[in-house]
From TrEMBL, chains A, B, C, D:
<feature type="domain" description="VOC">
    <location>
        <begin position="12"/>
        <end position="124"/>
    </location>
</feature>
<dbReference type="InterPro" id="IPR037523">
    <property type="entry name" value="VOC_core"/>
</dbReference>
<dbReference type="InterPro" id="IPR004360">
    <property type="entry name" value="Glyas_Fos-R_dOase_dom"/>
</dbReference>
<dbReference type="Pfam" id="PF00903">
    <property type="entry name" value="Glyoxalase"/>
</dbReference>
<feature type="domain" description="VOC">
    <location>
        <begin position="154"/>
        <end position="274"/>
    </location>
</feature>
<keyword id="KW-0560">Oxidoreductase</keyword>
<dbReference type="GO" id="GO:0051213">
    <property type="term" value="F:dioxygenase activity"/>
</dbReference>
<protein>
    <submittedName>
        <fullName>Catechol 1,2-dioxygenase</fullName>
    </submittedName>
</protein>
<dbReference type="InterPro" id="IPR050383">
    <property type="entry name" value="GlyoxalaseI/FosfomycinResist"/>
</dbReference>
<dbReference type="InterPro" id="IPR029068">
    <property type="entry name" value="Glyas_Bleomycin-R_OHBP_Dase"/>
</dbReference>
<keyword id="KW-0223">Dioxygenase</keyword>
Length: 328, 328, 328, 328
């Protein structure tokens, strides 16, 4: 293993854009329930940030005919890291282009994953500077925790569905320099991978799409930092008619505390309590879960992730097959 | 409504005796995992108490051929209350007898519920006095929190299965003076009742036995007082091979935080986090849940109580019907 | 000990009226930060309730020249209990009068404590009925948890300062039938008592006024039910410029989790996390703390309650003595 | 800013050796109360690890005449990073030597900080492999959480006292490549710095020694990952006669939850709840606290860090100056 392999090139997930057929419902969810600040409104899009998100926005909500992820952007650890990653992507597959058209961010390299997701890499990000009345006394906090709903701190990670997990893992390892912290194998087939290059348990996860579709989103996760807040959030969602899919509980994979719900537009959102395992060892060995261990892997407590949605529903939804029950 | 109806006659659940076919496993569960103190050992029985249980014991474990509850005893709020309750029971049904043969307790009135459970009423209870080295600096705490496992504080409540809930509720209301705080109705049929005369959400609950059996135990609950400890307990149970049935989550009924497991002998045990609603209004009106509200009633979070066990399994187990799956 | 002594006659603290010289600040504190609902506005007064308070209001904020408690009212467990308690008060001291002029409550007996506090007893209280949009799916919850600030559930208890604690205790024991659960003695002098007749650790506490003043308020406490929420509240108070006096920590006395702050008008308010010890034994023996045990009594964690405020400041404030430092 | 400046060269704090004049007391503290596993005993030393520490040991307890830190070792992110860091240290100051004599670790570079602390850098670390009965079902967990006391997960960070903070910061920035995330300035003087190169808020902190001594330890911190466990720990320490200095509360600096105690040998130990801020931005700008902001910096809740110990006591203790009160 060479020195380069230990180098952290991807800092974190900087922003995600979601499409929603119900923009009013989706904005009510993120602003009124999850306490995100609106920082800009332009055309069919609204830009939002959690009170600890460092940049101008971490979530862009755009009206569209169908719930789906438009794109997600990872920030590199330096301008040179961006150049290295783009060169690797270009060497690996031809698709990709530089753009520079998003509010609050500079030049950005857009590319397509082997399964067809739109992703981006960028270095240039404008730091958010709070106006006087939103400034927090806690100096590492870019803005005050608002008094609205149960405010999430920040965007945390991305979980993608893929028709084939292995090419995704290979591409993210090779071109982005991500480390595979944990994986699930079902016989010979990779059923899921959890990847990061930071100390987080994952910045990006990829799970097998049981519907066989390509390029779909499983969920976007937002960070509370406190497990109790996922319990509080479940109570809020219950009383304000947001469908809870599963949780609060704790995954064995990543040891993180989770709560899954569907925002009114139909995208699955995870509320993430404490971060679970922090990967401090630079030579952390990939943990591989087999199907006989999967009960502990999916939940340490009593949760059974619902087969009819958790492993089949993603956005954009795909038409159900004739004989199938379930949400999609 | 008369003055007498507001009188609290039953103080709390003082003790439970469980039978187990696996006494070593059951004692390991209660002592090593749940940190209960052993206070006596006699014949086939071991007497245990949590570190905040006020008397000599709250749980007696007795070896026996089948997992079941031998009896449970409620303590009255005064000697006179005991007399009043016994007179009422005697007026209501002939079965019952005074005994005085349990370590740490005085004269006790044993009776049988309409569904056949063995229960007792008593006033005389010997207070536990800790030896010097077990004395806590926290004066309301009868003994130090031990350093073993994840210690429960004390016995909390009892949940009984009954072939017919309504006669149980009638008897407990009339003869014990319990208040029905919440109930579930399935059309015309009472499916469950949660009763207390204290500020607790329930000292005794009764749920319909889906197997139609008589006199069974659903679960005995022990109190942590802190929701996080049910999360910690789930992790402990997972890694020490105790089957988790459901939770941690929070019931809508009673608002209490729950975790259900099976002790190695087969009895279902609930770990109870924070107490949920405390009933401060003396004229609290019974809340009635209908089946269209039952999702929130059973869990505020995403838990689906497992049909194949939660509503059918009790102790003693009954033989499964030919076409049925499930634990019993 | 007679049967009567075990009878619970006082159900709970139903309402408190506070005066404030800064009504806008005080209302911002209770409504915007603590998420209380406003249920009425009349003259110089605003009526508020927490989302689990059972009646029309639990807190009345009235503009006045100086921060102080106007009165506090306890609800009895039955109409007959009210009659018995009033007869006892009348036999004990001549002052007192029936009134019937408060919104949402019926006839009320007003009396004066031996130290001069205005208190009331009542039975008739109008239950709050939420309009459709504020109704909770959790049936024991009288209204939805609001999305504003960090909402408290309900009023919890009252802590009074007294120039002499013992006559207060004697009066509350004799005339109200309260049980003294815990007390602090400083040599021969009672320095504090914590009293209830319910399972709560205290509905009313009385502490010695180090300034020797009569009839002052130490604090009014509001209930979260979850210890984490006192941590969340401390962070909110810090960033929104509310002075934190002490906490979050846990008292040894009552085992309850506390956070003390001053509302903008100057009254001390306690945010109460989990309830601490629940007194299930009807014959609970009073725990007496001596001054050598007081460190554990005041805080289980590292908090030192600040001498210059906690033991001397109350409302109404009294002029400082010439040589003294401190908040008053 | 060059590419190299974003490179993470120091992975984490791998191990600490403490000296204690009371080895029985110190081992009881770490094993019985904090649930650390003993992995080796040799001469006057015992080697311990928390259940999530990845290597053979993270804490070595050695009998000695006075409480102090013998040394602390940081692990680099790669073998090449070790070489680069050693070359930089050697270029910067002449002292330092390669050794290879510690159980479970390979060749190690020992050096002395500008203030005289003994520190080490290493890459080679033997991973801990649990025997069958200690293996956890949670695959990222190197061993089962034990059933003893309130087990910490792992070693977290180091806080050093220094007679002069600035040379320490300069040396750690220049030679170890650490990033200064937060600092406190008292006029022109640096009073404290919190440094890491990972996403943790700090691996090493340095605070001004108010006694002016050189090369002392302020504290070693161990990680729970859950804020509630610091509350649980405070209760345990209180009842088992461990002196609590301050907390549980949350620092504004780093946003981390803290509890400070003194182990029986006299070294200050921090129990660390949730990790506080995770530094995801690679270009995180150092936050500088001035003395007028220090109240929020030291604690978000009501804690006043005790002047007479927190800012003056360190190990080894130094003789008190004639006019001074306090612990040392």
């Amino acid at each position: 293993m060479s020195d380069e392999q230990y180098r952290q090139e991807i800092a974190h997930l900087a922003r995600v854009e979601l499409h929603t057929p119900d923009p009013d419902g989706t904005l009510w969810f993120f602003k009124d329930l999850l306490g995100m600040y609106e920082t800009r409104r332009e055309g069919q899009s609204v830009y939002l940030r959690g009170y600890e998100d460092p940049y101008q926005w971490s979530l862009k909500i755009t009206e569209g005919p169908v719930a789906r992820m438009d794109h997600a952007a990872l920030r590199t650890t330096s301008p040179e890291a961006l150049e290295r990653r783009v060169r690797s992507l270009q060497a690996g597959n031809g698709e990709g282009a530089w753009t520079e058209d998003e509010y609050g961010y500079g030049k950005t390299y857009d590319f397509t994953t082997p399964d067809g997701h739109h992703m981006s890499l960028l270095w240039e990000a404008e730091k958010y500077r709070a106006p006087e009345d939103l400034r927090s006394k806690i100096l590492s906090r870019p803005s005050k925790k608002p008094l609205q709903g149960l405010p999430i701190k920040r965007l945390d990670h991305l979980n993608l569905l893929a028709s084939d997990v292995t090419p995704m893992r290979n591409s993210f390892e090779r071109h982005l320099g991500l480390r595979t912290n944990e994986r699930v194998v079902d016989g010979e087939v990779e059923a899921g991978v959890w990847m990061s290059s930071s100390q987080l348990s994952h910045d990006v996860a990829v799970m097998r799409d049981a519907r066989g579709a390509r390029g779909r989103l499983h969920h976007v996760a937002f960070y509370y930092g406190v497990q109790q807040h996922t319990v509080d959030a479940a109570e809020m969602f219950r009383d304000y008619d947001i469908t809870i899919e599963a949780g609060p509980d704790r995954h064995g994979i990543t040891q993180s505390s989770f709560l899954y719900v569907f925002e009114p537009g139909g995208n699955r959102i995870e509320l993430f309590g404490d971060p679970g395992i922090l990967i401090l060892e630079p030579d952390f060995e990939t943990r591989t879960w087999t199907m006989d261990q999967i009960d502990t892997g999916t939940a340490i407590g009593g949760t059974n992730l619902p087969q009819e949605t958790y492993f089949t529903y993603g956005t954009p939804p795909v038409p159900p097959e004739p004989t199938e029950d379930g949400a999609s």
